[in-house]
């Protein structure tokens, strides 16, 4: 049967009734306990699960980042996982302040095998789960509520017994009512309380209750309501470490984790960059860095994030998206003009006060804090404007364009960007700049010049040699300064140039220092820019004037060069 509305086969999520919810006005002021489940939930979702070498590398990485609880596998499920846990224990690979966590179903032979894998461990968390959701009770397990509680309680009793038989290990017990968020809240509470009793949880010997959004089924405020409801209603809350385990089916795993921590969760299970079943587990990198941007250090070290990303990509054999928050190859890059303009201005303000609160527009975090540089912050394509182009010329080539010149030059770059429909690298921008302003030698080029002055006069005399249309000329002029004298000398040869604006700065330092001069001149009523670069500021300013003359000439019809033949053609 075809439904008129195919969406009618779904039904809305049934929210928990919590009109006096407190979590919306809470703030996260301390980081939660973090537990990485990369080597278990992440691993079970990979096309090719990690082999021993990849698991070991991932484990070492997690330790280095600062995780104190690491779910290392499902040792009763596969020999690889079993052997990995044994190697960690036997080869003493686990630091004393780190607990390894292992998952098992609530089945006696799997629990026994799990304990076998942990023999001799220093600190271990045994994590058992069974599904409590009504659809799973009905369709997957075929059990009543009582039988469902029975599975959890029997497993807990067995685990408690095994723990008491291996007192060399510092044990922690963890229980997950799988699919907590789609379980009736009263029933979830009932199961957890039965498990707490079977384990004998007390404030001195608390257990972890992990409340998973196994499949994310509703907006994250619902999950937060459920966690707050649970924390407020469960008996002996003080005997529990409440943990959440968000998945990302609706794309709101990060929000769910944050809201549930506001709602009272003490601990978060997730993975680096969010690998995991279906759309993934919650991404701990994003969570940690979100906290960081609020001024709360997450207690995990992501200060050099790119090698972490590369290592995780190697271990998971999955790429991290270039737009992944805080880490993707493109997240610190702006292509669009207005963003670039604001970043450029914000960076200039910051340079003047590097200790100030971070407020650079469009950059929620300082790239340096995660080991990235400012280099890729601005990249240029057809969406870019003058701000980005000037930023690259300034940062990478030491050229600080005056505002009006930067407007003019942006049209040159825009033309290249539109024509190629590709990114324009800073090298290409520099080349376009050099072609346009520095390398035109026709019709005029400066060969050399000499300045002199009379001791009793502020005026300078200039003698210069220039090449004009292939002919070498010696020109003379006098003025208040070298540039004025040069303009006079040019005028004497029929090149009328009026200086409208002038800027100069140096680039580089010491023996390599150079001067850059920018002029805006008027030639035959038209305003034209020119740029000159030289070791001497005087020579740079003359070259800038010649650059303007040559640029002006290049825009004129070649009237002077019309040959008799072409005139004949025109006739
Ligand atoms: C939400 C999560 O991510 S939970 C973790 C899921 N991870 C994994 O499953 C990865 C590792 N798992 C495995 O390798 C295997 O499932 C094993 C080795 C654990 C078990 O393998 P098998 O015994 O062949 O069982 P199978 O994989 O078919 O699992 C289904 C059986 O487990 C039972 N089962 C599933 N979960 C549980 C549980 N938490 N507690 C008790 N029984 C359970 C089911 O009722 C079913 O039993 P049935 O065959 O009698 O109907
Ligand atoms: C075992 C549990 C915690 C789990 O992975 C889930 O529910 O997603």
UniProtKB/TrEMBL annotation:
Residues 440-571 are annotated as: Regulatory domain. This is 2-isopropylmalate synthase. Its main location: cytoplasm. Catalyzes the condensation of the acetyl group of acetyl-CoA with 3-methyl-2-oxobutanoate (2-ketoisovalerate) to form 3-carboxy-3-hydroxy-4-methylpentanoate (2-isopropylmalate). PANTHER family: 2-ISOPROPYLMALATE SYNTHASE, PTHR46911. Its EC number is 2.3.3.13. GO terms for molecular function: 2-isopropylmalate synthase activity; acetyl-CoA C-acetyltransferase activity; magnesium ion binding. One of its GO terms (biological process) is L-leucine biosynthetic process. GO terms for cellular component: cytoplasm. It catalyses: 3-methyl-2-oxobutanoate + acetyl-CoA + H2O = (2S)-2-isopropylmalate + CoA + H(+). Pathway: Amino-acid biosynthesis; L-leucine biosynthesis; L-leucine from 3-methyl-2-oxobutanoate: step 1/4. Belongs to the alpha-IPM synthase/homocitrate synthase family. LeuA type 2 subfamily. InterPro entries: 2-isopropylmalate_synth_dimer, AIPM/Hcit_synth_CS, Aldolase_TIM, IPM_Synthase, LeuA-like_post-cat, LeuA_allosteric_dom_sf, LeuA_N_DRE-TIM, PYR_CT. Coiled coil: none annotated. Gene3D superfamilies: 3.30.160.270, Aldolase class I. It is an enzyme of class 2 (transferase). Mg(2+) binds at residues 41, 245, 247, 281. The gene is leuA. Residues 32-306 form the Pyruvate carboxyltransferase domain. Keywords: Acyltransferase, Amino-acid biosynthesis, Branched-chain amino acid biosynthesis, Cytoplasm, Leucine biosynthesis, Magnesium, Metal-binding, Transferase. It comes from Billgrantia montanilacus. It comes from the Bacteria. It is found in: Cytoplasm.
